[in-house]
Amino acid sequence: MPLSARVPDLDVLDSLVTTARCGSMGAAANLLGLSQQAVSARVRTAERLLGVVVFVRSPSGVAPTDSGRSILTWADEVLRAAAALDAGAADLRGDPLASASVAVSNTVSEWLFPKWAATVRRQNPQAKISAIPGNSEQVLDAVQSDRVDLGFVEGPSIPHTVSSLDVARDELVVVVPPEHAWASRGRSPAASPTESGEPPPVSAEALGMTPLVMREHGSGTRTTFESALAALGITAVPPLMEFGSTAAVREAVFAADAPAVLSSLAVQRDLADRRLVRVPVSGVAFPRTLRAVWNPRRRPRGLAADLLAAAVAFGPGQTSHP
Q1: What is the number of structural domains in the chain?
Q2: What is the mean predicted confidence (pLDDT) over 264-287?
Q3: CA 280 → CA 197, 235, 238, distances in Å?
Q4: 23's torsion region: left (phi>0), alpha (psi -120 to 50) or beta?
Q5: What is the domain extent for residue 253?
Q6: Closest CA to 150 of 309, 308, 312
Q7: Which residue has the higher pLDDT, 168 or 188?
Q8: Could you tell me how far CA 284 lies from the centroid of its own chain?
C-alpha cells in the first residue's frame, strides 16, 4: 500500500506527540535530546505536510487545536505500531529484552511510579523494569554516578549536575488522628471526631516548635518541610520519631497519636475516610514539584524514555532544566 508523500517520518511524528505531552517545545527538546529549534522545525514540517495546524503557540507553551487533537491521536497510534514492530523484530532476532533501571524516591515509588510502569508494560509486555527505591538524596546520587538510567525525586532543588523535567506536583500536609488535640480544637463537645469540619489552623511557629513524626534526613519530604520553615527564620525542633518510608510514618501517626507531615498523595484516602484529619497551617505552605532526573551524559533512551513519556502523560511536565 503506497503511502502519500504527505505522511511525516516517524521522528517528526515523535516530536509532535512529545511536544503535546510536554506542553512546550523546550521541554520536548530536552526530553528528545534535541535543540528547541530542531523540534520547532519538525513540528512545522508535520503541519506543512499534513496541511493542518496542530498547535496554538503562546509564550507559556503550546496547546492542541481541535484538528490537532485528532492528528495527535493518529500519530500516537502510528508510533505505538512502530514500537510493536521494533519489539517484535527484536524478539525474533533473539535480542535481549528491553530493560531499564530506575531510582525512585519514596512518594513517587508508592503512589505514581506503578501507574507509569504499568502503562509501559501494556505497550511493551516484554519490558523489564527495575525500580530501586530510596530517598531523593539517594536517587540523585545514583543518577550522578551513572548507576541507573533514570530517576524520580521530590526535593525542592535539583543540582546543576543533572538534567530534569517536571512530571507531577503535590503538597505536604500536616495530619493527625481524629482524637488528637489539634483535630478537636474548636469542635463542639457533642460532635464526634468524624463529624467535625476542618480544625482551626496552627501557626508556622507552633508547627516548628512541635516534635513531629518525620521522614529521615535526605528525603524530599524532610528537606521541603525544613526549607520552607527556614525561609521564615524558623528552625524545626528535632522530630519525635523519624522513619525511612512514608508508610512507616503513617503508621506511627496512629500508634503515637502524633502529628506528621506527609505528601497529600499518601494520605488522600485516609483524609477522605476521616482516618486522618488535615490541620491547616497559617503563614506557610509546602507545595512540591516532582521531577524526573537523569545524567546529562546519558539521556533516557529506549525503555527509560518510554517511562519518562508515561510520567509526563500522567501529570504536568511543563518545565525542563538541561
Answers
A1: 2
A2: 94
A3: 12, 19, 21
A4: left
A5: 170-288
A6: 308
A7: 168
A8: 23
